[in-house]
């Protein structure tokens, strides 16, 4: 695994320029510094800058401009990967809002998943004390090196977040800081990433992520509602989720086929339910929703390979009807059912 730590020499932090369209110098595309972004943050002592004509500083405001992005990506011979969920934000109003709601502020360290070309990373780095951002696509490393050159509080990890030990990150990178997650998630791993974050039991102050609108509805679905799935059981178990705002498909390049939502998970300080075996409880929840058209008893017995009679008795002994569907259960009923089943299988 290659780990890139972006830290570049400090230069003229009092650079008074303002970001506009990029200019060409000696055949190079130069992103201009912004008075409101680079200069302000430099005054807070979090940025390192190299003059643009030394090939160092690129600026974020330009990164919300479609033609600037196209030029940048062309320069780096980059083509979007659909498989990696590469839809980059280009609406300049969205990133500052996500960063603010996502706790990019003093005293906070932020974990970002999927840096892309660094448009949200830039916004996070302006206000948070530290940003650690995962990006799986090695082709984006030289781009990020350019677009984040002015920040010394950013670390880019060129790795698959799903394979990374987040405990280690907490211990080594965020000493003395509150930690929050803030990301425009690659859609193909929305649920696994959220599950990894929740199941880690790490004390994130908040988890703020952009996901597809449909996924947001599922993730936020309250227990007992039709939209529920196994992931909603886990989300409700570990956190209180809410949708913050919607983002239209036109805010991305390339535009995805669906609109998105920014949502936030406030982790429960104390989990009010106590299944006797939490691992088994989540196995039962996953099994219950594996075949959505089946009822609870049929789904669970086929997913766990357990005799239908035993599953049916476990349901009956907590007052559940034999035909109940998994999405009709409350959290208390799910816990009671999994406890009964666990006992019956001893
Ligand atoms: N943050 C950028 C933005 O808002 O424009 C990019 C967001 S884009 C939706 C998701 C990014 O996640 C892509 O750059 C993609 O390469 C990266 N990615 C995909 N799978 C990943 C994984 N398993 N671990 C880390 N990054 C991943």
Strand order of the largest sheet: 1-7-6-5-8-9-12-10
Structural class given helices, strands, pairing? alpha/beta
What is the count of DSSP helices, taking H or I runs of 4+ residues?
A: 13
The backbone outline, from C-alpha atoms, is elongated
**Strand proportion:** 15-25%
Mean of residue pLDDT values: 85
Q: Can you walk me through this structure?
A:
By secondary structure, the chain is an alpha/beta fold. The protein contains 13 helices and 12 strands. It has helices at 35-43, 66-75, 94-101, 119-127, 141-147, 166-173, 190-199, 213-220, 230-238, 278-288, 296-304, 308-316, 331-344; strands at 2-5, 23-25, 28-30, 88-89, 108-113, 130-134, 154-158, 178-184, 207-212, 239-247, 252-253, 260-267. It has an 8-stranded mixed sheet with strand order 1-7-6-5-8-9-12-10, with helices on both faces. The longest helix is centred in the last third of the chain and has 14 residues, at 331-344. The site of S-adenosylmethionine (SAM) has 22 residues, from strand 4 and helix 4.
């Amino acid at each position: 695994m290659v780990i890139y730590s972006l830290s570049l020499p400090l230069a003229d932090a009092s650079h008074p320029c303002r970001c506009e369209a990029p200019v060409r110098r000696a055949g190079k595309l130069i992103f201009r510094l912004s008075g409101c972004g680079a200069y302000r943050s430099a005054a807070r002592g979090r940025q390192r800058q190299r003059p643009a004509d030394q090939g160092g500083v690129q600026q974020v405001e330009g990164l919300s401009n479609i033609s600037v992005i196209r030029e940048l990506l062309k320069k780096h011979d980059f083509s979007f990967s659909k498989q990696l969920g590469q839809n980059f934000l280009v609406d300049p109003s969205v990133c500052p809002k996500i960063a603010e709601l996502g706790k990019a502020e003093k005293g906070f360290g932020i974990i970002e998943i999927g840096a892309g070309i660094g448009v949200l990373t830039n916004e996070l780095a302006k206000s948070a004390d530290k940003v650690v951002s995962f990006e799986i696509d090695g082709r984006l490393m030289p781009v990020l090196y350019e677009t984040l050159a002015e920040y010394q509080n950013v670390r880019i990890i060129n790795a698959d977040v799903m394979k990374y030990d987040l405990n280690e990150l907490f211990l080594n990178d965020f000493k003395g800081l509150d930690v929050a997650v803030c990301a425009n998630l690659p859609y193909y791993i929305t649920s696994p990433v959220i599950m990894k974050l929740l199941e880690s039991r790490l004390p994130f102050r908040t988890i703020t992520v952009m996901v597809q609108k449909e996924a947001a509805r599922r993730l936020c679905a309250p227990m007992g509602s039709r939209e529920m799935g196994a992931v909603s059981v886990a989300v409700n178990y570990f956190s209180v989720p809410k949708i913050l705002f919607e983002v239209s498909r036109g805010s991305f390049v390339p535009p995805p086929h669906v609109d998105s939502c920014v949502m936030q998970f406030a982790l429960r300080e104390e989990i009010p339910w106590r299944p006797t075996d939490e691992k088994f409880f989540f196995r039962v929840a996953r099994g219950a929703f594996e075949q959505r058209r089946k009822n609870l008893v049929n789904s669970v017995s086929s997913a766990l390979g357990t005799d239908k009679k035993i599953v049916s008795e476990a349901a009956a002994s907590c007052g559940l009807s034999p035909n109940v569907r998994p999405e009709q259960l409350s959290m208390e009923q799910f816990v009671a059912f999994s406890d009964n089943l666990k006992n019956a299988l001893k």
